From TrEMBL:
Pfam families: Aldedh (PF00171). The active site is at E247. The lineage of its organism: Bacteria, Pseudomonadati, Pseudomonadota, Gammaproteobacteria, Lysobacterales. Keywords: NAD, Oxidoreductase. The keyword Transmembrane helix does not apply. This is Aldehyde dehydrogenase. Belongs to the aldehyde dehydrogenase family. PANTHER family: 2-AMINOMUCONIC SEMIALDEHYDE DEHYDROGENASE (PTHR43720:SF2). The keyword Hydrolase does not apply.
Amino acid sequence: MREVLNQIGGVAQSARDGRFLDVFDPATGETIARVARSGADDVEQAVTAARAAQPAWAALPHSARAAWLTRLADAMDAEAEAFIALEALDTGKPIALIRDIEFPRALANLRFFAAAITQWASESHHGEVGLNYTLRQPLGVVACISPWNLPLYLFSWKIAPALACGNAVVAKPSEITPLSATRLVELASETGLPPGVLNLVHGQGDEAGRALVAHPGVRAVSFTGSTRVGREIGRTCGEQLKKASLELGGKNACIVFADARPEGLAATLLRAGWQNSGQICLCGSRLLVQRSAYEGLREALVEEARNWTVGDPQQPATRMGPLASRAQFDKVQAALDSARQAGARILCGGQAVRPEGRCRNGWFQAPTLIEALPEDSPLHQQEIFGPVIVLQPFEDAEDALRLANGTAYGLSASVFTRDLGTAHDMAARLRAGIVWVNGWMARDLRTPFGGMGDSGIGREGGVESLRFFTEPRNVCLTL
Ligand code: NAD
């Protein structure tokens, strides 16, 4: 059985007390590996290794740290197919999704921040009192905690800016999908990255994760995950007055006005709701449609849904694989059961899927479209993180805004209209950190990324990430 170990100070090692957790292939339900189940002792060791390595790392010129990130990206690229296979095994994602979108994005994260750090300028202010300039200095040791839905993509999105800025990292990937991050850190050691600069501690969130957040040697926590855990991390960081960036859940609305361009619309909306089995924080799980266009679009969606083949993620024709874990599968089933009891009309899907052959015990859910639920029902209000889109009609822009802004979340929204005035007015008034007009999930890595309300605090992306991972210091030359 494959053993997935901690990577501390450049050395692969088991948890101190030798405990492990099982790792499953969600497509088959079979155990594929066991991962170290770390505790506070392991975290202590990782933070110590990081602390020892950080000053020399911070002392390198930006261009030298950028060169390390580029070297790591090149090494990843050289074994792209192995990474893609590993991620597919661990997550059950269709290979094409990883090959076409997620793996290239992980590479782009490393290359983007390698370039960004060499181009970043700090501010200077003059003309009032003396000459002021801002020194941007690394924080020291930082924690990067990532979830299971986009394992390599989100892991690299955090560690790249943290390292580029001169911090040493202790990272904790999700215990559900630990394989690709482990290979990436091994590769960093193989390319010669100084030991201790990038460390990995595996294990449960409420053990290793909690110990890492609470460690006094950790100066900042960059976290992506659930709102529940985000709140806890926020409390701990608040108590210790350490920086926290919290990227949390979403219940994002796609808002379709009657004048929206119809070509490709249904396909885009289904992709927004169902990509990665609906397990993306940005998924448009609520579909609000202007009443005069509602029936026509509903038919188009049901028709388009026939193109979504669910099954073995290794098969090239498969569009949707399983949910990532048994717990996630159970959560989606429970949400659908209660929606049915609340009188929901299921337009397609609604049930679990049992493919033939090797995947018969996997955790598959049919892509689902639902309507006729009251506004305050849980499926309109709570993130379930599965391939489930809930439709709802609206009358006019005010009604659409009321519905779209009517949850505790505020991550993203999409507005589909040909009217620029409507698009701009909606974008300015939607309670969301990201608004797409006539699209979904188009990402320019230079832009701010993050949410409000239950979707989190702080922004990542471009200079926002660089700002988060540095401490600004004002120096005033009184001349
Ligand atoms: P989760 O909160 O359960 O776990 C995320 C990570 O935190 C894991 O590595 C976990 O081990 C760790 N963790 C759990 N409890 C912890 C604790 N008490 N202290 C420290 N670490 C702890 O989330 P998940 O189920 O892995 O991920 C799904 C969630 O992530 C969804 O809500 C989704 O919307 C959200 N998400 C948000 C974004 C975003 O950018 N806003 C992106 C992807 C996923």
